[in-house]
Write a structure and sequence with these properties.
Length: about 375
């Protein structure tokens, strides 16, 4: 359980870093270049991890890297940008908050990871918390924006589950670097066609891209895929709900935004949903349901003892005990218990055995 908790903490690096990415993007990165921004974010991060791992893809990992890079990076970034342009942030975030449920269902189908009740309950509470944090009123909702947000959520969830399924035999840094490079390469031609020449970068933008590349992309995705290797997909998906929590807290602490009571209640619900998805919470639920509790023995029953390898011993009668008759002792003396053999007496009918009392000695003396 301690190892699972440590891996959950490692996984939490990803959504926290992604939550800070919103603030850095809006404050320091050039506006109007989402595709170039995604490509500049993905390619250097992938090359950095490739430099650390020093391994190139082999065999099927060439097409797997392209597929995962498209699902998790290039198509995801493009669809998220489209959804952000067509939907209020609250609606887009609420749609993305359903990702844990989709990951659980896909993991059930592709990985045979059956969703557990605490995971499903945590996902429901987490989605409710995100809606409570971010929804501030009625807003216009476009169908195209909703479809783009749903597509981004489903594609990334599928990419994460496939990355978990294909992770055997390849280290995390290598597979993450290949995905980022493939996703960046796919983005470049679309950026050239849609956005023309790349943006000119100044000091703040260079520092912002450095943070986004190293922390919010290379480190974040490596931590995320490491968590997928060691934790159930449902647990990892619920940890991802820290993303909007980080955004709200960062807005409060850095941007000076007020944290309302409604947002505070939503934040508490999200954290509760995340905790329900952790392995320790599942074990606690199992204890409550009695799955790991041994049934209590009936009242008055003797405690169970370990059986011998040869099987249980036959029952002995408490009233009868047998012995070897000593030499010189008659049958009558053995039957009446008057044999003059102190310390070797064996009686019938539950009388004394193996000891001689003063009364016995007196009686024996009188008989002699």
């Amino acid at each position: 359980m301690e190892a699972a908790f440590r891996w959950a903490l490692v996984t939490a690096i990803a959504p926290v870093a992604w939550g800070t990415n919103y603030f850095v993007t809006h404050q320091f990165l050039p506006a109007g270049y989402p595709l170039y921004g995604a490509a500049i974010r993905a390619l250097p991060a992938g090359l950095l991890l490739l430099l650390v791992s020093g391994k190139r893809p082999r065999g099927s990992w060439w097409w797997k890297s392209l597929a995962l890079g498209t699902l998790n990076m290039s198509a995801f970034f493009a669809l998220i940008y489209l959804a952000a342009q067509l939907l209020p942030t609250s609606v887009a975030s609420a749609v993305m908050a359903t990702s844990p449920v989709v990951m659980m269902l896909l993991a059930w189908s592709l990985l045979s990871e059956r969703p557990r009740i605490p995971h499903l309950a945590g996902a429901g509470i987490g989605v409710a918390g995100v809606c409570l944090m971010l929804f501030t009123g009625v807003a216009a909702v476009g169908v195209l924006g909703v479809l783009a947000s749903i597509a981004a959520m489903v594609m990334s969830s599928l990419g994460y589950v496939l990355a978990k399924r294909w992770s055997a035999g390849v280290d995390v840094l290598s597979s993450t670097s290949w995905q980022l490079i493939a996703g960046g390469v796919v983005l470049v031609p679309f950026a050239v066609v849609a956005e023309g020449a790349p943006p000119a970068l100044e000091g703040p933008a260079i520092l912002g891209f450095a943070y986004v590349t190293v922390v919010a992309t290379a480190l974040a995705f490596a931590a995320w895929f490491a968590g997928l290797r060691h934790l159930p997909a449902g647990t990892v998906g619920l940890v991802g709900l820290l993303n909007p929590v980080t955004g709200v807290l960062l807005g409060t602490t850095v941007a000076g935004e007020a944290l309302t009571a409604r947002q505070l209640c939503g934040l508490v619900l999200v954290l509760l949903g995340i905790l329900l998805g952790q392995p320790g919470a599942a074990r606690l639920a199992a204890l409550v349901r009695g799955r790991v509790c041994r049934p209590s023995p009936p009242a008055g029953a003797a405690p169970a003892t370990a059986a011998s390898p040869a099987g249980p011993s036959p029952p002995r009668s408490p009233a009868t005990t047998t012995s070897i008759r000593p030499r010189g002792v008659s049958d009558h003396e053995m039957a009446t218990g008057t044999a003059n053999t102190p310390g070797q007496e064996v009686t019938r009918g539950g009388s004394r055995a193996g000891c001689v009392t003063p009364t016995d000695r007196s009686r024996d003396a009188g008989s002699r």
